[in-house]
Amino acid sequence: MQDIRLVIVTGLSGAGKTQAIKSLEDLGFFCVDNLPPAFVSKMAELGAGTGGKVSQIALGIDLRGGAFFGSTVEALEELERAGYAYQILFLEASDQTLVRRFKETRRRHPLASEANVLDAIAEERKRLEQLRGRATYILDTTDLNPQKLRDEVIRIFGEDREATRLFVTIVSFGFKHGLPLDSDLVFDVRFLPNPHYVESLRPLTGAVREVRDYVFRWPVTRNFMRRLVDLLDFLLPNYITEGKTQLVIGIGCTGGRHRSVAVAERLAQVFRRQGYNVVTVHRDAERDGGETE
Questions:
Q1: Which domain holds residue 144?
Q2: What average pLDDT does the segment 210-239 reach?
Q3: Would you say residue 291 lies in a domain?
């Protein structure tokens, strides 16, 4: 049986379960919120059958499940019988904090139809008592804002892998085709020597070794790369500290075929070695025309 890391996120309504699940999603967990407990074992089974493509699953279970929620303990026992290990993250907060949060968001407590908010919170605590007793981690969010809650979830489940908290997409593009609209940072490399003017390289792209060798043979390119890597070495950890989870870096040349592709690939290689999750997208590399004068 393939090992699956399974986290059950539960707790009091208004304690921050949605934010916790989003934080786990940022850590690479496959997340499903408000899942009927009867499907918990099925989700673990499906994850185990992906051949490693899904190895971390987080499931949100709470009183929003209504009549389904009562079978939660039975579902956990079924998991145990099937041989799946799991952790429970239980979120709670003070009554005063929960009441304030419901007023601020104008949301209705799941049990509010049966009682006023304070009575509903008391009833929810009672119904969750057995599940709380099974919790691996109990997190009191009374004094936590969303950012601090996110930091706590990452501290518990992130295994100190700082770099994995930021997903970097490096997009090569041609300025003549327009800027990538979702770019957070854009760097213009049109000042670098252009392989377009070398007849044997013109039909190729920057993904080909011959083109990359040409682009990086020049001191100006190597100097630029050192400065760019230094800048990103400074920026990326600070983006992580700020809570950023997605970063799109645009690298543009004239047509998006040669220089931008070569620089994007080299940049991705550098930051993958540092442990970052990096993907490259070469938006314009196969467009007709490529570079122009």
A1: 5-160
A2: 95
A3: no
